[in-house]
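Could you help me review a protein record that somebody else here produced? Do not assume that whoever made the record got everything right. The record follows directly below this note.
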Amino acid sequence: MTTLLLLRHGTSVNNTERRFSGQFDTPLTEQGRLQAAEAGEYILKSFPVTAVYASDLTRARDTVTPVAQALGLPVTLDPALREVDLGDFTNQPI
């Protein structure tokens, strides 16, 4: 049986500024980087992972990289995994 783990990106700059992100490429905050590291440690201890996929957006890539490194796996980046396009709402205040 295959198990699929979904990991949301860590806290991004747009999260702290209360802005809609959509496909806007906003980076992680320092807190978001710590969250990613903690997620990597937890997943390493808890699940047998054989592949890692992520959106090509910076916040997703930077969240999953510590996880993949802890597991010794490459990251496959795929733009099809991006969040929905929010059109005129992209990068606007909530």
